[in-house]
Amino acid sequence: MIHSSLLDFKFMIRRITGKSALISYNGCCHAHDCCYKELTNQSCHPFFDDYQYSIINKDVMCCE
Fold first, then answer.
1. Which single residue of 1, 21, 27, 44 could bond 39 by disulfide (Cβ 3.0 to 4.6 Å)?
2. CA neighbor of 9 nearest in space, from 22, 39, 56, 40
3. In this predicted structure, what is the pLDDT of residue 22?
4. 61 and 55 Cβ atoms separated by less than 8 Å
5. Is the pLDDT of residue 60 over 60?
6. Which intervals hold domain Phospholipase A2-like central (predicted)?
7. Which of helix, strand or coil describes residue 62?
């Protein structure tokens, strides 16, 4: 399990895609934005709060 924040997002992209965050930006950011929107709708602050996730077979699994 990895403890992270928005600042570590580029490392997640690199680990999943094996590419630079700038190259893989669109697809990953769309998925990430959807997750962040859902969290914001639940009164969370994902851009500032730390969160945990796991990477299993190149799939990112958010944790509570």
1. 44
2. 22
3. 66
4. yes
5. yes
6. 5-64
7. strand
3-state secondary structure at position 47: coil
Measured from the Cβ of residue 36, the count of other Cβ atoms closer than 10 Å reads 18
Could you give the number of structural domains in the chain? 1
Q: Calculate what percentage of the chain has a pLDDT beyond 70.
A: 69
Q: What is the pTM of this model?
A: 0.42
Q: What is the dihedral of CA 24, 20, 54, 33, to 10 degrees?
A: -40
Domain that holds residue 54: 2-63
Say which residue, 62 or 35, is predicted with more confidence: 35
Please give the Cα distance from 35 to 29 (Å, whole number): 10
Q: Is the dihedral of CA 34, 26, 2, 18 positive or negative?
A: positive
Q: How far is residue 8's CA from residue 51's CA, in Å, rounded to a whole number? A: 11
